[in-house]
Specification:
Belongs to the 3-hydroxyacyl-CoA dehydrogenase family. It is built from 11 helices and 8 strands. The relative contact order is 0.10. The longest helix is centred in the first third of the chain and has 20 residues. Bound molecules: acetoacetyl-coenzyme A (CAA).
Length: 286
């Protein structure tokens, strides 16, 4: 019998977490949205109201449905608010020790049957799972940015994830209107393993003054039919997140030089140029 997911918890309400909250609540599932502080919670709430407001303005969502969506979300500071949920998705920054600490804590708080999922893009789901006493109920559920718009979800099973947990999560993806691909636990899974070498190469091209940012982006957008150019996409993903993904893939993926983060990327992150979320990255935002 397929498992019921009536209430899910989302940990971390940054770009990805807030988008994931929106996806669940839009599809009739109650969400407990958790952050570590009141300030972070307010930022998360603003991410959610901003995104749903844009959806209403663009005619993708009625004001009534937006209100119903927001009504399904409760906000809380701290993991204990997740004691009754059926599934948790963690979407905090890409640091293994942070994720392991959160999973160990969730393991003690959540019901024994609760599935614990990570939205990690590049870290090892297996290494995260062994921080718990239920590694067979730990899985990767990897959404793409912006989560409410992008259709794909990568479902990542480890060598010990129970087959019924994989099947239940696949059924859940269908309920969310997403298309899932199910893969084993390898750095970058499918999409990022292919995408990030290309994005890194674009930064190297820009760093070497070979072409302007506008021309690099125009070439890929207008010449290759992509929805946006690589530098604009880096700004959307967040340069800090992109750096962490590249660095992890480089270290986990046999030090493939395509994934060695270009020095400019690190410099921009250190200088606080994180892309859209900080107002400036390769481009400047209002
Ligand atoms: N709910 C529902 N629909 C929404 C929405 C929301 N919250 N927000 C926007 N939309 C809709 C818009 O109405 C619009 O629909 P139409 O095309 O029918 O008008 C569509 O989504 C696109 O939105 P916008 O018009 O606001 O923006 P855009 O046309 O400039 O497109 C984009 C923006 C969707 C980001 C597009 O440029 C794109 O697809 N870019 C590539 C994104 C990408 O590659 N993402 C993957 C990044 S890698 C990753 O995420 C992995 C990782 O681990 C980091």
């Amino acid at each position: 019998m397929t498992r019921e997911f009536n209430t899910v918890g989302v940990v971390g309400l940054g770009t990805m977490g807030a988008g994931i909250v929106e996806v669940f609540a839009r599809n009739g599932i109650d969400v407990v949205a958790v952050e570590i502080s009141d300030a972070a919670l307010e930022r998360g709430r603003a991410n959610l109201t901003g995104s749903t407001g844009r959806a209403v303005a663009k005619g993708k969502l009625s004001a009534e449905d937006r209100d119903a969506l927001l009504g399904r979300v409760s906000f809380a500071v701290g993991l204990p608010a997740l004691r009754d949920v059926d599934l948790v998705i963690e979407a905090v920054p890409e640091h293994l020790d942070l994720k392991q600490r959160i999973f160990a804590e969730l393991d003690g708080i959540c019901k024994p049957e609760t599935i614990l999922a990570t939205n990690t893009s590049s870290l090892s789901v297996t290494e995260i799972s062994v921080a718990t006493h239920r590694p067979n109920q730990v899985i990767g559920i990897h959404f793409f940015n912006p989560a409410p718009v992008m259709k794909l979800v990568e479902v990542v099973r480890t060598v010990v994830t129970a087959p019924e947990v994989v099947a239940d999560v696949e059924a859940l993806c269908a309920r969310l209107g997403k298309v899932d691909v199910t893969i084993n636990d390898r750095a970058g899974f499918i999409a990022n393993a292919l995408l990030f070498g290309y994005l890194n190469h674009a930064v190297a091209m820009y760093e070497s003054h070979y072409a302007t940012r506008e021309d690099i982006d125009a070439a890929m957008k207008l010449g290759c039919g992509l929805p946006m150019g690589p530098l604009a996409l880096m700004d959307l993903i967040g340069l800090d997140t992109a750096y962490e993904i590249l660095d992890t893939m480089y270290r986990r993926g046999g030090r493939d030089r395509r994934h060695a983060p270009v020095p400019l990327l690190k410099q921009m992150v250190t200088a606080g140029l994180l892309g859209r979320k900080s107002g400036r990255g390769f481009y400047t935002y209002e």
